[in-house]
């Protein structure tokens, strides 16, 4: 890895190398800045509107590109297809992101690592559901040209904490844009009654959840340093992966 890698590619390549990943899926490719830097044998990218010359990369170096929505892609994907490593960076709404997560889980196995982008809003403006509203409000009230926008993707975390308590969840809090890791642990998780109650309350108030809500519920995100979070996932995933021989 080199210093030119963006934070997403750096994190994904760390996981790919440690877990021996041979298949990779990226939802929300846009310019290809991450996808083209991921060092995995077979890579698949999905975006309804690629912002680079994707045709020139199609079929080269194990790369398959699908110019369509993630919903359509998953609807047409063979049910038996599984990926070792998945990066979700699609539409910045919690409904779409949650659908992408559910689909990703269906196409994962015991050793799959999932990285979810945009789960931590940068400020009150970046939590706006509409990108243009985010930029306009930040320019007007903060006199800033900062173009960071995360939408309401942050709302998927309480859904995961409540309805997917069998999965491990950590949010990388440093080293670049915060992102959330999701994976199946090798050993069953112990039930945390207090955390479950917090998640249930958070989901019940999800419709009204705003930036202040996010700040009040940050513990649900399990923030951790990048180095510690990546190593925790690597240690946790079972070394004896029953799907490994089939990949």
The number of E-state strands comes to: 8
Shape descriptor reads: globular
Q: Give the CATH topology.
A: Rossmann fold
How many helices does DSSP assign? 8
Structure description:
The protein is an alpha/beta fold and 247 residues long. The chain has a single domain (7-233), classed as Vaccinia Virus protein VP39 (Rossmann fold), CATH 3.40.50.150. It is built from eight helices and eight strands. It has an eight-stranded mixed beta sheet with strand order 3-2-1-4-5-7-6-8, sandwiched between helices. The two termini are 25 Å apart. The model has no long low-confidence stretch (mean pLDDT 92).
List the helices and strands and how they pair.
Layout: H1 7-19, E1 23-27, E2 42-46, E3 63-66, H2 70-76, E4 85-88, H3 94-106, E5 113-117, H4 131-142, H5 156-163, E6 168-172, E7 179-183, H6 193-204, H7 211-216, E8 223-224, H8 226-236
Parallel strand pairs: 1-2, 1-4, 2-3, 4-5, 6-8
Antiparallel strand pairs: 5-7, 6-7
Helix pairs in contact: 1-8, 5-6
């Amino acid at each position: 890895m080199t210093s030119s890698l963006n934070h997403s590619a750096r994190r994904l390549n760390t996981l790919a190398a440690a877990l021996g990943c041979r298949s990779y899926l990226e939802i929300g490719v846009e310019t290809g800045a991450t996808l083209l830097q991921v060092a995995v044998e077979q890579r698949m990218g999905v975006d309804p509107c690629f912002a680079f010359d994707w045709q020139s990369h199609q079929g080269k170096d194990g790369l398959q590109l699908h110019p369509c929505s993630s919903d359509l892609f998953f609807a047409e994907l063979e049910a038996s297809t599984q990926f070792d490593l998945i990066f979700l960076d699609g539409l910045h709404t919690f409904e779409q992101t949650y659908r992408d997560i559910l689909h990703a889980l269906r196409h994962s196995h015991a050793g799959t690592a999932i990285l979810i982008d945009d789960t931590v809003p940068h400020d009150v403006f970046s939590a706006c559901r509409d990108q243009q509203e985010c930029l306009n409000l930040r320019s007007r009230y903060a006199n800033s040209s900062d173009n960071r926008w995360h939408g309401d993707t942050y709302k998927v975390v309480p859904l995961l904490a409540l309805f997917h308590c069998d999965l491990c969840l950590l949010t990388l809090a440093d080293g670049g844009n915060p992102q959330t890791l999701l994976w199946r642990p090798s050993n069953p998780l112990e039930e945390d009654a207090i955390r479950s109650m917090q998640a249930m309350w958070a989901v019940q108030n999800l419709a009204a959840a705003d930036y202040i809500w996010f700040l009040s519920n940050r513990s649900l995100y399990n923030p951790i340093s990048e180095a510690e979070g990546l190593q925790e996932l690597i240690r946790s995933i079972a070394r004896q992966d029953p799907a490994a021989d089939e990949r």
